[in-house]
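Project outcomes to date are best conveyed with an example. Our students and postdoctoral researchers have been running inverse folding experiments weekly, and each run begins with a structure described purely in tokens. The record below, which covers 82 residues, was selected by the lab manager from last quarter's runs and is presented without edits.
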């Protein structure tokens, strides 16, 4: 079973097949491309704990901000219409 190879144990019985597949896929992606940076990991931990003070971010997006996702260090290719 892929779970055992990836995590070293049997999956918890309460997990659905869909969630198991997602967790395996995330771990494979993390191994291939790296995990979260420390700031993001701390932020997610704060959200999980319900720590309101830490989740009020300085990372607020301002109006007009453009989010661009990179793939292998390259921004997406944009096609302009004439």
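After processing, the design step wrote out the following sequence:
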């Amino acid at each position: 079973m892929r779970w055992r190879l990836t995590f070293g144990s049997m999956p918890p019985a309460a997990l659905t097949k869909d969630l198991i597949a997602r967790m395996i896929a995330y771990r494979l992606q993390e191994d291939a491309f790296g995990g979260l940076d420390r700031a993001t990991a701390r932020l997610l931990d704060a959200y999980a704990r319900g720590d309101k003070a830490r989740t009020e971010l300085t990372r607020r997006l301002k109006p007009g901000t453009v989010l661009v996702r990179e793939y292998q260090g390259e921004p997406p290719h944009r096609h302009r219409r004439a």
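The chain has one domain: 1-82. Residues 1-82 form one domain. The training component of this project remains on track.
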